[in-house]
Design a protein that fits this description.
5-stranded mixed beta sheet; globular
């Protein structure tokens, strides 16, 4: 159905106001709300074709309303895409509001002035994306299609969004243990979104994000992920160091990604992905990635079972000794999840953690 918005000619007491349900079937030149009509105070406004379609298809959020722009500036291609998206919304029972003329100003406010609304043509109001808070991983018995997390505390409100299911499903392309990313210090939303995009495409089972030291999962981040975040299991870690300790006790191996100059912080020697083999066939793995500037937190690096990086042909020349973190994450994830060549009995020759010396990759 098409909702109807009541005309608002009053003064705007704050930038974004809550509107519990007054509506209109069409927003035009004389019926443009002066404030954003939130369905709930926690609503988020998603933009970008890939993000909106992925959210409608995945249905991991509560979906409140789809705003569709019908202005004269629309091209035939985007009009057809908007129509198909509107049909998808109707299919899943999502209310639709059409925006004409000056109504584009409302879309601009919802997307904080992003310049593509006229071209994309729609914005989706939805609840926040589920991000399950965890404090560790439990042991994994054999190469299974799921693993279990240790849930951290969350409020009732957060639980209504995130759920409380401790099981995370895996979708491995070959027999292997789970493979998870741990992101700490990724402050740029574009980089965070690009990492999520690569992780989903390459088959990462879940992404754990440091809650207090990372970019938010903002609409900018979600757009950079090209909709991948809507499908990828996301986990929040409030205390990364105890999380690593707890998971290691339960058999998980942690790999610290870093440039060669930064790899001396931990107990293990630095090796490149060309010597990695296929560790996910031997044990559950967590690849830790740090920030764009200083790299991985030294506390986490010291806890790593192995240090891993990417060897470059011109490493160090011209002042460049590393890759952008989003580019590096794609190469590293591909190396960990590459279908191993050889027989079914193929195994990597990983040195185990011991008290007599550092761990190495051969």
């Amino acid at each position: 159905m098409l909702d109807r918005f009541a005309e608002d000619n009053g003064s705007q007491s704050r930038k974004d106001s809550y509107d519990g349900g007054s509506s209109s079937d069409r927003i035009g030149q004389s019926r443009t709300p002066l404030s954003i009509p939130y369905t709930t105070p926690a609503s988020e406004f998603l933009y970008g074709t890939s993000v909106v379609i992925a959210a409608l298809q995945a249905r991991r959020r509560k979906l409140y309303k789809l705003y569709v722009y019908n202005g004269e500036q629309r091209e035939a291609k985007t009009l057809a895409q908007a129509e198909s998206t509107e049909k998808l919304a109707h299919k899943h029972g999502v209310a639709v509001s059409r925006v004409d003329g000056d109504g584009i100003r409302l879309l601009d406010k919802m997307s904080t002035g992003r310049p593509h609304n006229v071209n994309a043509g729609f914005i989706l109001e939805a609840s926040p994306l589920p991000k399950l808070p965890i404090s560790g991983f439990l042991p994994v018995k054999g190469q299974r299609q799921a693993f279990q997390v240790i849930l951290d505390h969350q409020s009732r409100e957060d639980e209504a969004v995130n759920g409380n299911n401790p099981m995370v499903q895996c979708h491995a392309g070959f027999p292997r243990y789970p493979f998870v990313l741990l992101l700490d210090g990724i402050l740029d939303p574009g980089n965070l979104g690009a990492i999520l995009r690569s992780a989903w495409f390459l088959g990462v089972d879940a992404v754990a994000i440091s809650k207090r030291n990372s970019a938010p999962l903002s609409p900018v981040t979600l757009k950079a992920s090209a909709g991948s975040a809507e499908n990828l299991p996301l986990l929040f870690v409030s205390h990364p160091s105890p999380f690593v300790d707890e998971s290691q006790k339960n058999g998980w191996k942690f790999y610290a990604a870093g440039a060669p100059s930064r790899a001396t912080r931990g107990p293990s020697l630095y090796e490149t992905i060309s010597l990695l083999g296929s560790p996910a066939r031997d044990h559950p793995c967590v690849l830790m990635l740090g920030g764009e500037g200083d790299g991985l937190n030294p506390v986490l690096q010291k806890k790593a079972d192995f240090n891993i990086g990417i060897g470059g042909q011109r490493r160090g020349e011209g002042g460049v000794d590393s890759l952008n973190v989003s580019v590096a994450s794609g190469l590293l994830c591909e190396a960990f999840l590459r279908m191993p060549a050889g027989t079914q009995g193929f195994k990597t020759n990983h040195a185990r953690r011991s008290s007599t010396g550092p761990n190495r990759l051969f």
